[in-house]
Amino acid sequence: MNLIEVFKAIGDENRIRILNLLIKEELCVCEIETVLDITQSNASRHLNKLKSAGIIISYKKAQWVYYQIDANFKDRYNLLYQFLESEISKNPQCIKDTERLCKYKNSSFTCEQLREDKSQVLEYLKG
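^ that's the sequence the OP posted. Answer follows.
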């Protein structure tokens, strides 16, 4: 975990948006791409950058890959983590993303449904 790599990783709006969601809870990649309305390849690229910097970790559960903030990152860069948590929560786009996440989590949609027909979920989140 190199501080320069950490700052490079957080220097992108989409990665900040992803961190915003992961600060709230662990999520499957399909949930991240749906809530943020980004492509799977785009989400994966940003997640890999955050993972390479040591900010997040992932684990596989059945066919799904879940991501969460790495506890080692929180411990090593606690002040930076607290700063990010505080400032991200004030960002207008991140506030909208959090609202979409809550709406998604309060729905009955599943990762299986996202895989089958993401457009239906996106319509629900926009409405």
